[in-house]
Amino acid sequence: MCHVKYRGKAQSSPQQQQRAQSSSGWGWGVGKHQHESIISPSAVSKSKCPLRSWGGNLECWMFFSQLYPTNNDRPMCCAAARGVGSWLSRSQQKLREEGRKPSGHADKEVMAATVLTSLSTSPLVLNPSSAPPVPEPGSRAWKDVLSNSYSSSTSGNWSWDTSDQSVPSTPSPPLSNDANKNFPLLTPGDDVNEDVPESTHFMFEDPIPRKRKNSMKVMFKCLWKNCEKVLSTSSGIQRHVRTVHLGRNTDSDYSDGEEDFYYSEIEINMDSLTEGLSSLTPTSPTTCGPPPVFPPPLTAVPHSERINMNSSHCPTPTLLSQSAPSTLCHIRTDHAYQATAPVRIPLGHELAGLGNGNGTRPGHGTGNGISVSWQSPHVLFKGVLGSVIPVRTVSIGEKRQPAAITHSTVIKNHALITPAPKSAPGTRKPRGEAKKCRKVYGMEKRDMWCTACRWKKACQRFTD
DNA sequence: ACTGCCGGGCA
DNA sequence: TGCCCGGCAGT
Question: Low complexity bias located where (predicted)?
Fold first, then answer.
């Protein structure tokens, strides 16, 4: 199962971080002391682990250098963690059902679950809007969760180095006295389905139906590639996935929950639909372009993702609908590891990347640095298309969804997001590469320039 | 800072 | 129309 391995002190220099990120495996860390954890690809049931969406071979990187320095950073991690936690919780349950106590690798798996689910259940994520910055306790409590739970139960491979005081404190969620309730631990033997705070219940079970306005219609959309089946019930969509895509027996009630990854819950604002968004149909539920393509099994999308049709969640719907034909807008996702855009973490906030699964540095590339943002009811996502800060870039799912962010998309985003130049763009002639009179003759021989050059016009002698 | 050149003013 | 130059944008 999951081999959680401490691989030594983390890389403090960018070069070291770079080297580390270019290796395989996945890991996480705190502050300057990053710890790597490796999930053995061969040992993990790929068909169950949501991490497969990061590359199928589970070679993905998570570096949480400063845990959740900002609200904006958290959902990525949390979402991923939540997916893992859900999966691991199932694994636990299966172990119990089989009458076995998790131990050894399984124990480490549970530890991983604790780490990840703790991430995912942070109160800030659950309710970031009510989270004024309070120094320190967030990460500390997080570490406490870990140390209290597993510092003594692991075989020395695992540790949290909390001694490093150089890690700057960052805004953290307010933790009430019962903060631990918001950090449900997956400890061996616990029944993950019992006494789970309601706020975290949705992690492990089907989403609790939330109070919605009457105008919000919840539908369930199949995310299997080229399948846009939309059904009104989760059971229906599960049955659809199970029978149509997973090839399982219709009559069998057996379900291991894998169907969850292949559909998403979408909210359709009936008011908006009737007020002029009639072009939006349940089969194309986002206003941001075509639905994301999730080629299974590499791209498993847990069901708790919700694509929100309510345009009020998108601050600039027109712009985003044109510029981000993916899941950038209107998607309220609890499993953002399927997000399509690299996310630039604000400077000073060392949440480094979730790797792209092939061992390359996440986000290394175009340097366009186009900032985008999208909002969910839980959190405002901010990111960058064409990341520019490799170490501080989260590049999630880009390998899995290469079509989501295309070059043309980036161009379009750039044109749409960046302020329009004062003069009309495109009218200006591209700068020629040929040497001009000024270069050839120099200022001293200005009289030898062509007339145009002398007049500061486009050179007529050395044209391109 | 340097370079190319657009847009506009002036005679 | 010829000449010149401010200023923008790319390198």
Answer: 11-24, 151-164
Closest nucleotide C1' to the C-alpha of A428:
B6
Domain boundaries, chain A: 2-417, 437-464
Q: Which residue, A265, A269, A263, A273, is CA-closest to A309?
A: A269
Q: What are the helix and strand counts (H, E) for chain A?
A: 12, 16
List the Cα angle A104/A105/A110 in 5-degree steps: 100
The C1' atom of C9 and the CA atom of A452 lie apart, in whole Å, by 19
- In angstroms, the CA of A316 and the C1' of C8 are apart by 30
User: In Å, how far are A18, A51, A84, A396, A450 from A116, measured between CA atoms?
Assistant: 23, 12, 7, 16, 68
Residue with tokens 């970031």: A128
pLDDT tens readout for residues A120-159: 333 333 333 333 333 333 333 333 333 333 333 333 333 3
How long is the CA A442 to C1' B2 vector, in angstroms? 12
For C2, which residue's CA is nearest its C1'? A455
pLDDT per position as a tens digit, A21-30 = 332 222 222 2
Q: Any idea what DSSP says for residue A361?
A: P
| Bond prior to A285 in cis (omega within 30° of 0) | no
Rounded distance in angstroms from the CA atom of residue A455 to the C1' atom of nucleotide C2: 9
Position A460 scores a pLDDT of 84
Q: How far is the CA of A446 from the C1' of B2 (A)?
A: 16
pLDDT bucket at A272, cuts 50 / 70 / 90:
very low
**Strand C nucleotides, any atom under 7 Å to a protein CB:** 3-11
Model pLDDT, residue A435: 78
Kindly report which amino acid residue has its CA closest to the C1' atom of nucleotide C11: A431
